[in-house]
Amino acid sequence: MSVVRPSAETHLAAVRSGDRTGIGRVLTLVESTRAEDRRIARTVLAALAPEAGNACRIGITGIPGSGKSTFIEALGSLLTGRGHRVAVLAVDPSSPRNGGSVLGDRTRMTRLAADPAAFIRASPSAGAGGGVTDRTAEAMVVMAAAGYDVILVETVGTGQSETVVADLTDLVLLVTVAGTGDSLQGIKMGVLEVADLIAVNKADAGSAAAAAAAELATALRLFATHRASGPPPVVTCSARTGDGVDEIWSRLHRRYTERSSTGLVESRRREQRLVHMRRTVRSAVLADLAANTAVRDVTETLRSAVESGEILAADAAERVLKAFHSAHEKGSTMYETPSAPLSMPGVVAIDHVGIAVADLDAALALHEGVFGFRRVHDETNLEQGVREVLLQVGPGPGRGRLQLLAPLTPESPIARFLDRRGPGLQQIAYTVTDVEAAAEALRGHGLRLLYESARRGTAESRINFVHPKDAGGVLVELVEPAPSSPQH
After folding, report:
1. Which CATH number fits domain 347-480: 2.60.40.1120, 3.10.180.10, 3.10.105.10, 3.40.50.300?
2. For residue range 189-203, what is the model confidence (pLDDT) as tens digits?
3. Distance CA 274, CA 282 (A)
4. In this structure, which long-range contacts are made by residues 280-285, counting pairs with CB atoms below 8 Å and at least 24 apart in sequence?
5. Angle CA(76)–CA(77)–CA(80) in degrees, nearest 5?
6. Full-model pTM
7. Where are the domains of the chain?
8. How crowded is the C-beta side of 404, counted as CA atoms within 13 Å?
9. What proportion of the chain, given as a percentage, has pLDDT over 90?
10. Between 327 and 259, the higher pLDDT residue
């Protein structure tokens, strides 16, 4: 049985009602790379987009150690105290080795995290450039539609590519500190090109902040003369004490109001939607490239020659791209099945064939009464919303089995299958000796599994599924029987 996932309607109701747990699930859905999740996410986002236009979106960037998280907590608390609902989308850097991320922003904003008028979501950057994730724009749609009228986007804060946040937000605030040489480095970074306001934080530490602000303001007058709106203002603040935070919000809100009244906010958002489209296309092409079997084969063939310098990297890249284009011209899919025989450990036999039925009694009358198959297992699976009846073909074990699947609820996967296709073949199941090893082998051949790890199946078996799109449109189940199972 496939996993039961909430419908798009369920997700929409959760967002519109402000259900915090449901909103978290929708954000997880939006961040997912699974094909089915992406399909549902697009449906949800399309419905929410018309409801997401009223939030003020502010990007907050700056070098590590500048106190961005502390500042966001101070600003967020100030805003919720004035009746605003504040969403914080914080991006933590992912490890380039294993993709892991600490996701520690909630621990740094304990006061704001406990505020019922605030919502904090920390997401791993997952290798995305610009200090934001590939899904930040979509997450903002969810939060705005959920009624959060101020959305703060905290970037990773690594420096050179932080300008991307300007393509997502209405305003950009740069947070810096004294004593870092940041006035000159900031101009090199280019962040000053997109900043609407600069805040020199930690002003409670002495007079260094005021001196740094004056130095930075002078530098901006010299180097930012080409900006139509002039150099951004520079102010000081202390996120720790709250001094200056109110003034920063007043300046940001005034600028947002002015731009909204002249149509500049909507004009900027129209441009940002195009930018987001291009980035999404680029990400999809890169994912397609990485998943293509022909590309992987050519890349592996060229690896040693590139490492040794025998072939220039540019020449190797051209050969990889030729393999990619050639594969697509031949009609290959994003996840190709291997041309060589698949080597999967422990395949024993066909375990059973699953048939979706609308009328279980009629199906049993046919298969038991007419064909003479013997019922060996009958189970009501409330988690999946299905009744499962296993029938033995022939007088002894090893003769093949049939599984009849009847829906218990209209929302169950079998009910949805019947609505789409009607009664008929729903799955084919293979018996394996080790379902985890089999799943890992399949992943090695580029196939997708529905579950990250095995789940409980019928009669205490352990199961997983190959995605139908990678198995010719058929749901393939891997079944590791329970050690004491009498059905095998």
Report:
1. 3.10.180.10
2. 567 778 899 999 988
3. 12
4. 280/134, 283/134
5. 85
6. 0.63
7. 1-51, 54-271, 278-329, 347-480
8. 23
9. 31
10. 259
Residue 454 has pLDDT above 70, yes or no: yes
Residue with tokens 């919720």: 80
Closest Cα to residue 146, out of 245, 248, 277, 30? Answer: 30
pLDDT > 70: percent of the chain: 81
Q: Which residues pair with 198 in a beta bridge?
A: 174, 234
CATH number assigned to the domain with residue range 54-271, chosen from the 4 options 3.40.50.300, 3.40.50.720, 3.40.1710.10, 3.40.50.1100 = 3.40.50.300
Q: What is 25-57 written as a DSSP string?
A: HHHHHHH---HHHHHHHHHHHHHHGGG--S-EE
Tens digits of residue pLDDT in 248-265:
999 999 999 999 999 999
pLDDT at 363 over 60: yes
- What does the block give as tokens for 348? 């024993």
Please report the beta strands in 332-461, taking only residues with DSSP state E, as ranges in sequence order: 347-356, 374-381, 386-392, 401-407, 424-432, 455-456
| pLDDT greater than 50 at residue 488 | no
Task: Report how far residue 65's alpha carbon sits from residue 77's, in angstroms, rounded to the nearest whole number.
Answer: 21
Rounded alpha-carbon distances, angstroms, from residue 432 to 344, 398, 484: 9, 14, 15
CA distance 195 to 247: 17
Token representation of residue 200:
């020199």
The residue with tokens 């986007």 is 153
Q: Kindly state the tokens that stand for 1.
A: 């049985």
What was the pLDDT predicted at 481? 84
Give CA angle at 313 (309, 317), nearest 5°.
Answer: 145
Residue 52 makes CB contacts below 8 A (sequence gap 6+) with 140, 141, 142, 144, 145
Taking a C-beta distance cutoff of 8 angstroms, is the pair 403, 390 a contact? Answer: yes
Give rounded-to-5 percent helix, strand, coil for the chain: 45, 20, 35
Structure-block tokens of residue 329: 């011209």
pLDDT tens, residue by residue, 392-404: 876 655 567 889 9
How far is 313 from 463, CA to CA, in rounded Å? 43
Task: Kindly state the helix (H) or strand (E) to which residue 120 belongs, with its residue range.
Answer: strand 118-124
Q: What is the CATH number of domain 1-51?
A: 1.20.5.170
